Amino acid sequence: MEPDVRRGIRELAVARIVEHADELTALDQAIGDGDHGINMKRGFEAISEIAEEIDALPAGAALQKAGMTLVMKIGGASGPLYGSLLMAMCKAMPGDPASRRDLAASLAEGVEAVKKRGRSHAGEKTMLDVLVPVLGAISADADDPLAAARRAAAKGLAATKDMMATKGRASFLGERSIGHLDPGARSSALLVDAVCDAIEGKI
Length: 203
Fold this sequence. Notes:
Layout: H1 3-19, H2 21-31, H3 36-49, H4 51-55, H5 59-73, H6 78-89, H7 100-118, H8 128-139, H9 145-159, H10 183-199
């Protein structure tokens, strides 16, 4: 993956989270602590502050640095979850990914780390309801893997609205959590879209 593409991914990821911070907070106010947008914005702005350092690193090391930054800067559950995602992804990406298979292997490591950290699986109204189908999409032999990833993310996010939360603060609401999108799934969908845009050169 070319350095300019990796830089584009970082820039767009930060921009999307900052742009949608109020939306993420509103979603979290409905079923959680109400701070998801604020926390995510803080974490991704911290990544932006060390942009030159991150951009100078190989892909795997850049993911490790970004993940550690999120763990340190994001409060609540989101920091450890997103940090675990990125830091685990680097284990399968020692250098720069050269193929879709490399990206899928890296994401698979990240998804497993999120499952372990959150003690959760897809279907429980979490970020995994976006990440798991996206992994399936890029692992499959699709003609347009980026379009498939976008569709999987959008479908996974939409599905969380009708789910009852069984993990995190939202689980305290029981059936009252039904009818709301999961904020973590929304932030994950935003990041998937940012990655796809950067890879397609829309930066």
